[in-house]
Amino acid sequence: MSPSTLQLVWPSPEHLPGYIAALERGWSPNNLRAEAGREELALIRTDPDGFLAGLVDREAKGPPIALPTGGTVPRLPGYRRWLWDGEFCGSIQLRWQPGTNALPSYCLGHIGYGVVPWKSGRGYATAALRALLPDARAIGLDHVEITTSPDNLASQRVIRANGGVLVEEFITEPGLGGAPELRFRIDVRTLG
């Protein structure tokens, strides 16, 4: 399949079996917490409708977010979309603070994404990010920030292919791993 066949779909009962299958294969939607995949499987088994509803939380009404070190932080407004080419391919998330481009220090970026390993290398992350950027503009953001590790060259290519400009290299807070990261910025005001 090519990136042109990729769709961003809203999490739904129709697409949930594909998501479950990816989690059962060990994929996690959270690159900082591999155990998040197992936690999501448990939530799905308990309350699939509630799980799906929680993936679209534009008012940040859901529970706090767990950090890799075990603490929690307040949830931001946001939502996840799933990458779909006839099968589940990954997810992409947009999060924000109303009325500002600023993010709290515990949030590494406006957008996070991940493609399942068996679908990587097909241009899906680049296409998904391109498709999500107009949403960021629609909610009032002037730009989005996306972070990636210095050794994740594939993610850097995805960001740059969508107009990302390197802003800084920094060290994440200890609660987020205390690791080097690169912060990119994409201006969404100029999207066509």
What's this model, at a glance?
The chain is an alpha+beta fold and 192 residues long. The radius of gyration is 16 Å and the shape is globular.
Explain what you see:
With 192 residues, this protein is of the alpha+beta class. It is built from 5 helices and 10 strands; from the N terminus they run E-H-H-H-E-E-E-E-E-E-H-E-H-E-E. It has helices at residues 16-24, 36-46, 48-54, 124-138, 153-161; strands at residues 7-9, 56-57, 65-66, 72-73, 78-84, 88-95, 111-115, 143-148, 165-171, 180-187. The strands form 3 sheets. Strands 1, 2, 5, 6 and 7 form a 5-stranded antiparallel sheet that branches. A 3-stranded antiparallel sheet has the order 8-10-9. Helix 2 (36-46) crosses helix 3 (48-54). The mean pLDDT is 92.
Which whole number gives the mean pLDDT?
92
Please provide the count of β strands. Answer: 10
Question: Whole-Å distance between the termini?
Answer: 26 Å
Structural class: alpha+beta
What is Rg?
16 Å
Global shape: globular
Q: How many strands, which pairing sense, and closed or not: the largest β-sheet?
A: 5 strands, antiparallel
How would you describe the oligomerization state of the chains in this entry? single chain
Question: Strand percentage, roughly?
Answer: 25-35%
| DSSP helical segment count | 5
Order of helices and strands: EHHHEEEEEEHEHEE
Query: Unreliable segments (pLDDT under 50, ≥5 consecutive)?
Result: none
What level of helicity do the residues show?
Answer: 25-40%
